[in-house]
Amino acid sequence: MDLRERLQSALGVDYALQRELGGGGMSRVFLARDERLGRDVVVKILSPELAEGLSAERFERELRIAARLQHPNIVPVLVAGSSSGLPYYTMPFVRGESLRARLEAGTVPLRETLRSFATSRTPSHTRTARA
After folding, report:
1. What is the dihedral of CA 26, 80, 60, 22, to 10 degrees?
2. Which CATH architecture best describes the domain 3-94?
């Protein structure tokens, strides 16, 4: 069973996986349909080969930090869980280009991006430092 099939099986009938959007160093990101609420979401999972040890701890820490963030420019965590050995969390799907793609294309002024990034990160770093 490939990863997509394994994830769909783990999520059951609540989410219908549509396609893989990408991934990074330790995670994979999928577009899914939240069948109950009728909306598109992103499902981020820890890559199965990294689910043991330090990577699982880092994924959990990322999840907890992301869940505490509250800012108009940050997409919130909706649901988090683990099923069939796959830790995951969901976030609303935001249509459009990624920030990386927009920056590379020069369609977002760098000053605006840095200002937005700085104001969105400050509260989380303040909270994280006290945690």
Report:
1. 10
2. 2-Layer Sandwich (3.30)
